[in-house]
Write a structure and sequence with these properties.
Keywords: Hydrolase, Magnesium, Metal-binding, Nucleotide metabolism, Nucleotide-binding. It catalyses: a ribonucleoside 5'-phosphate + H2O = a ribonucleoside + phosphate. GO terms for molecular function: 5'-nucleotidase activity; magnesium ion binding; nucleotide binding. Its EC number is 3.1.3.5. Helix 3 runs antiparallel to helix 4 and helix 5 crosses helix 7. Among the domains are: about 150 residues, Rossmann fold (3-Layer(aba) Sandwich), CATH 3.40.50; about 55 residues, DNA polymerase, domain 1, CATH 1.10.150. The protein has about 350 residues and is α/β, with parallel strands linked by helices. The protein starts with a helix and ends in a 6-residue tail after the last helix. Strands 1, 4, 5, 8, 9, 10, 11, 14, 15 and 16 form a ten-stranded mixed β-sheet that branches. A two-stranded antiparallel sheet has the order 2-3. It has ten helices and 16 strands. The structure holds magnesium ion (MG).
Length: about 350
Amino acid sequence: MSNQLQSIFKTVPVNLSAVRIHLCSSTQFTSRVWFCGGRFEDRLEMEGNSVPLSDGCVEVVVCDPQLLDKKISAIRTAGPAKLQVIADFDATLTRYWVNGRRGTSSHGLLRQGNPEYDNKRRDLYYHYHPLEFSPTIPIEEKTKLMEEWWGKTHALLIEGGLTYDAIKQSVADSIIAFREGVAELFELLEEKDIPILIFSAGLADIIEEVLRQKLHRSFKNVKIVSNRMVFDENGHLIAFKGKTIHSLNKNEHALEMAAPLHDQLGNVDGPTYDSASVKTRTNVLLLGDHLGDLGMSDGLNYETRISVGFLNDNIENSLMNYRDAFDIVYLNDAPMSGVVKLVSQLWSSDSV
Ligand SMILES: [Mg+2]
């Protein structure tokens, strides 16, 4: 392992006893376990064997350390002015488990203060959600179904009289929490003037409220690429802005949909980063928890991309696909601290 990778992975500033890094080849699952104290243990595990569960450790899988090393060097050489971060929201920036319970998604937390309409939206979920994951429905047909689902849901939110206050209350009542280290990551990126685009097929206004309530501060470099609501002067939802972003088209709308973070209702912080400046940032750090999240950088003609995958659950079945698809895979609902370390080492003077 290169000095560069060693400096990134050797310590993670969280209250965890160790970081284990598994380096694997394409044919066999060769694991190297590296403890924070600096001791290496080499060991071999057969492909398909279950990965040891985290016992107070952060488990990291890096399938191609040479490639990762090259990418880190390329990003270091280009400098922070060339980098942007593209992140999925649910189960990527937020935790999969919160106090032993499955964390709520930004989509699922909304209670519009009208049980009849909450139930109608829930019924739509039960109807369309299985269709979204059906292996037999052709993609064109599925895309139409998703448009239908999102359209009906948005119409119900308007018809049911959603208010901005209901969003605030829903977020306050929800089981949702950011991964440890997310605020530090945002701060670090803000210091370096690096934009963070958060992509979601959910609702921008809810994500912003989650950021406000759970991080207790705003970041000028954070942009939400998601469905945005329009409220009247009394705080009632009256419309949605622009094209609907659903689960099957969220990647197509990357840059043109990037809107600045609302400072408060009806008030928008000036666009610190416009689409043009984002397009000139040709290096990408991509964070996701789903293989489909890799498509979030499709709208960009990027030069170097480091992809980080959070594999939160069903690890035994999904690890092979994740480790082949992402440069770095964090297992078991890991904290964001490893990514903080990666970013902080990208331009530190002692990590060459
Ligand atoms: Mg997600």
